[in-house]
Amino acid sequence: MESLRHELTRFIQQPAAFSDPPALYRRLLAEAPVLDLGRVHVVSGFAEIITVLTHPGTSVDASAVGLPRGGSTALARIVGRMLPMRDGADHTRLKRLATTAFSARRLEQIRGRIESTADRLLRPLLAAGSFDVVADLAVPLPVAVSCAVLDIPDSEQERVTGWAGLVGRALLDDFGDRADDRRSAELDAGFEQFRDYVEKLCAARAADPGDDLISRLTVARAEGRLDDEDLLAFVVMLLANGLETLTSGLAVAVWQLLRTPGLAERLRAEPGCAEAVFDEAQRLGSPVRASARALTADVAVGGTVIPAGRVALLLYAAANRDPRRFADPDRFDPDRAELRHLAFGHGPHHCLGAPLSLMAGAAVLRGLAAAGESRELSTPLTGATVPWSTQFVFGGMRELPVRCPARTAEPVGVGRS
């Protein structure tokens, strides 16, 4: 068991060094679905993670068990007030305010904009003959999706993308380290511009409300259901929504498309299966490798009692390959019967934007598959050379170069005697 602890610890500290994480996942699931690392218990089994996520004695707030909060910059404080960082009745109250923006009716209203945006981004990339999926497609598209939800013009997307990157760094970096005061000051300066933009946006919607989420949130503030900081955190979160999760998810889905024989042909013949293909790529690729819960009560998990005061590190990437849940779990199978996985979380904190991610991912896959009729789609990368993320939480790729030259017509008479 010590060797397993050592291997897991090394993976957490250096995720990019592992060429085959599924081998570690298989070992964890077979030997220790709940593994004690001291203050932290790593939970990797599917059923075990569901138990933790639905237990009332858990919190997303590390300070609930005496651990420090994420930092002291203005940006870090706003991140701490975002919906994913809230618990209980507070979380329920805030989530209810956003639910209407993700209704089936609203999603259908913005489907066309999302699909046209994906097409608009793809066309020049394909025409160029090569591009990087991550930088050129998977970074701008999530912001475009967020702008569609919030009814923000396409012309604003470039500015918003830069600001959304600040929020992504706030979610991943340790802002508690005051050794780099200059860097913290630079982040706060950038965030002040973002704050000013959001406040002006909210003021404009309050003065002339529409049928968009920001307008509804400003009404909630006027009625006292939301304060100024909650409103700011909400809109900042929605603008930055998906910049890490959907970015990572798009990269792993395109990687799957490029390396699965016959998949592009199937997508051309059955475009309606694109969401199922994208969804299965999320299960297998697990763009969000893990999350954590602070335990405010003893929690019995798979025959182990994790005591109050500990932290449960929930390894979604392993649970999504749990053979007790998924038949032949390492096989890519968009038609599998076991549809529910943990790539978008579970329970109260299940990702509100999951339908949007599926919609955007499907649009990209359909667009690339269609291009495959007239272009040769390939990547110079192999399974051994993929530059995986150096972050533990997000398991996507740092880059994914794609070559897409136009197919050359076969000369008449070639191959005939």
Please give a structural write-up.
With 417 residues, this protein is α+β, with helices and mostly antiparallel strands. The chain contains 17 helices and nine strands. Strands 1-2-8-5-3 form a five-stranded mixed sheet. Strands 4-9 form a two-stranded antiparallel ribbon. A hairpin with a 3-residue loop joins strand 1 (34-36) and strand 2.
Number of continuous helical runs: 17
| Shape descriptor | globular
Describe the main β-sheet briefly. Answer: 5 strands, mixed
Strand order in space, largest sheet: 1-2-8-5-3
Distance from first to last alpha carbon:
67 Å
Sequence stretches where pLDDT stays below 50 over 5 or more residues:
174-179
- Alpha-beta content class: alpha+beta
The overall average pLDDT, rounded, is 87
Gyration radius over CA: 22 Å
Strand content: 5-15%
Say how many strands there are: 9
Portion of residues in helices? Answer: 40-55%
Order of helices and strands: HHEEHEHHHEHHHHHHHHHEEEEHHE
Write a compact overview of the structure shown.
Helices cover 51% and strands 8% of the residues. It has 417 residues and is of the alpha+beta class.
Features:
417 residues, alpha+beta, 5-stranded mixed sheet, two-stranded antiparallel ribbon, 17 helices, 8% strand
